[in-house]
Design goal:
Layout (H helix, E strand, L loop, with lengths): L2 H29 L6 H22 L7 H4 L1 H17 L9
Helix pairs in contact: 1-2, 2-4
């Protein structure tokens, strides 16, 4: 399987997971049920699900009153974009044997 395809599938999955976790946590908050830890929400964003987490945050109006989510999630996304461009423009080539 092509590496690019694997990465695309991973990013689709992890962003969908970030979106769904925000929706599930909002639903649990309304039901006063056991919540998803904030560390889990940030971890999913850090491992590539920042776009889905941001979309879920604003779609479900969840965690939008917490400054560390409102500014933290976009900061994570900007860091990931910067890392992508840094890796893209490195003078090193990556080859799979």
């Amino acid at each position: 399987m092509d590496v690019i395809l694997i990465l695309v599938v991973y990013f689709i999955f992890i962003n969908l997971a970030g979106f769904l976790l925000m929706g599930i946590d909002k639903w649990k908050a309304r039901k006063q049920a056991f919540r998803i830890p904030e560390a889990t929400l940030f971890t999913v964003a850090l491992i590539g699900g920042s776009i889905g987490s941001i979309l879920g945050m604003f779609t479900f109006h969840h965690k939008t009153r917490h400054w560390y989510f409102v500014y933290g999630m976009p900061a994570i996304l900007l860091l990931q974009i910067g890392l992508f461009f840094l890796l893209r423009h490195l003078p090193v080539t990556f080859e799979i044997m």
